[in-house]
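To: structure desk
From: M.T.
Subject: fold request, one chain
Message: Could you run this one when you get a chance? Sequence is below, nothing fancy, just the single chain.
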Amino acid sequence: MFPATVTEKLPAAIVKEVFSLSADARQTLFLDYVEKAEAVWLLKGKDGFVMIASEEGERLPVWPHFDLASAWSTGSDDDVEAVSISLAQFKQDWLPGLGKNQIELVLCPSRVEKEDPVLTAEELLASFQDEE
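Reply: Done. Structure tokens follow.
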């Protein structure tokens, strides 16, 4: 289904299929592909990075591929663009800061599935270390 190697463009059918996967499957896909691509994708608008409001507070959505981030943002009212952060910088700078501010991360959120994988910054960092 998802490419085994890093690819610049994903077919629309793959994007649609990814968003219909379970939360656990999207979490696994995120961890596996981000390690290969050595990058994490976020959405940035004129007022900063896109956040998802929840009962527990603000959450930062992250994706393993440009096409997934872009597809998720389609239809939103915000003028946003997908931006990449190197995995090294994300681990070194972003995750400690997010942890300090108690911001959880939503891995590859879907507008189709009701449940999304949500991890604390510490849990995500530990998951990356488990993959090494």
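Reply (cont.): The beta strands are 39-45, 48-49, 52-54, 57-62, 81-86, 104-107, 118-119. Let me know if you need anything else for the meeting.
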